[in-house]
Amino acid sequence: MLKKDIRLQVLKELREIPHAIRKEYNIDIQNQLFASQEWKQAKHIGITLSRYPEVDTEAIIKQAWEEGKSVSIPYSTTDRKLYFYLYKPDTKLELSKFGLLEPTVKTHPQPKEAIDLLIVPGVVFNQSGYRIGFGGGYYDRYLKDYNGKTISLAYPLQIKNEVDRLIEGHDVPIGKIFLAAK
């Protein structure tokens, strides 16, 4: 199975998770995250504004603000680079070509060293933290010289052994995966 095939298969499976179970999974993941040392020690978090069928990040972002943490969200360029910009409740957003909400004003990207916890999205993961994302390699390029902590948030069906044989030289593993309990 190719990366694109497993990506499509898992996205289909994610869309089929019943709403009530998805809600339970999200709460479980949030509870694990908020209790973790990675979260407690973080002052500045890099995170995407999730879209269905991803793990919901809205409550995570609100919790970060309530705890006085800085939050930055990604902006992707046409040359496949990723930059993170501060995100506040009044930040104006626009829809990107990928269907993601990104900041409209891009004045001062945050230096990588300013973000001490990066929550990396993905479609499929293996137990070692390798991931298949949404395609394009944006995060793998960003992560190659990122020194902060990295985590991902996932539902149980997103862990697949098939990822093991699809790992490529440029792939960068995530430090820890917070996985909803089955």
Question: What features would you describe in this structure?
Answer:
This protein has 182 residues and is of the alpha/beta class. It has a single domain, classed as Rossmann fold (3-Layer(aba) Sandwich), CATH 3.40.50. Helices cover 27% and strands 21% of the residues. It contains 5 helices and 10 strands. The strands form 3 sheets. Strands 3-2-1-6-9-10 form a 6-stranded mixed sheet.
Keywords:
21% strand, 182 residues, 5 helices, two-stranded antiparallel ribbon, Rossmann fold, alpha/beta
List the helices and strands and how they pair.
Elements: H1 3-15, H2 19-35, H3 37-41, E1 44-46, H4 58-66, E2 70-76, E3 82-86, E4 93-95, E5 101-103, E6 117-119, E7 124-125, E8 131-132, H5 138-143, E9 149-154, E10 176-179
Parallel strand pairs: 1-2, 1-6, 6-9, 9-10
Antiparallel strand pairs: 2-3, 4-5, 7-8
Give the DSSP E fraction (strand runs of 2 or more residues).
15-25%
Q: How much helix is in the residues? A: 25-40%
How do the strands line up in the largest sheet? 3-2-1-6-9-10
CATH topology: Rossmann fold
- Helical stretch tally: 5
Indicate the structural class: alpha/beta
Roughly how many Å apart are the termini? 25 Å
Overall body shape: globular
State the low-pLDDT regions, or none.
none
* Average pLDDT taken over every residue: 93
Query: Any idea what the CATH superfamily is called?
Result: NagB/RpiA/CoA transferase-like
Largest sheet: 6 strands, mixed
Binding site for substrate: 49, 54
Cofactor: Mg(2+)
Binding site for ATP: 3-7, 131-139
GO molecular function, one term: 5-formyltetrahydrofolate cyclo-ligase activity
